[in-house]
Amino acid sequence: MNNSNSLLSSAHQVYRRAAAKVSMLEPITLLAARVYVGWAFFSSGLTKLKNWDSTLFLFEEEYNVPLLPYELAAYLGTAAEIILPLLLMAGLASRFSALGLFFVNIVAVISLEDIAAAAYAQHVLWGTLLLQVVTFSGGRFALDHVIKSKLVKGEMLQQKSVDTKIPTT
């Protein structure tokens, strides 16, 4: 009985050490996800800007964006594909930008009548990576993290100065 507890305890320690090592990859994988998806959407937005007449034609004839006139959909979609990926890659307003791109991604999928299996799989991958950023934030290598660290540090310094003041009577 004691031997099995010792074996279980050893296995648990090995697992915890391995899990701690794998967890060290979290900031790198979140950064890679942000850059990968951000670049895909940003380059799509640049393509739309390069040939605006073609973009308007596609939104009028090819894409069936629900509830919006095609011109408004073209402007909103292109703006989202330029602004949100830049925020996402920088890690600024990471959750907001990832959520915004998640919805752009959904609209892109439902707007196309015929979408190739490979393109659909790519959209599923992007959606999954974006949901990870929404869930876990941008990670340690994001401007959000830097700003939060500075704010917390400033609050701690302010609290410390308040705590060390001697009351005068």
Overview of this protein structure:
This protein is mainly α and 169 residues long. The chain is built from 7 helices and no strands.
Kindly summarize this structure in a few lines.
With 169 residues, this protein is mainly α. The chain has helices spanning 2-23, 26-50, 52-62, 70-90, 94-111, 117-136, 143-164. The model has no long low-confidence stretch (mean pLDDT 91).
Summarize the SSE layout with pairings.
Elements (H helix, E strand, L loop, with lengths): L1 H22 L2 H25 L1 H11 L7 H21 L3 H18 L5 H20 L6 H22 L5
As residue ranges, the low-confidence spans are none
Total DSSP E strands: 0
Shape: flat
Distance between the termini: 68 Å
Q: Could you give a short account of the major beta sheet?
A: none
User: What's the order of the H and E elements?
Assistant: HHHHHHH
> Helix- and strand-based class?
mainly alpha
Bin the strand percentage. Answer: under 5%
List keywords for this structure.
169 residues; mainly alpha; 82% helix; flat
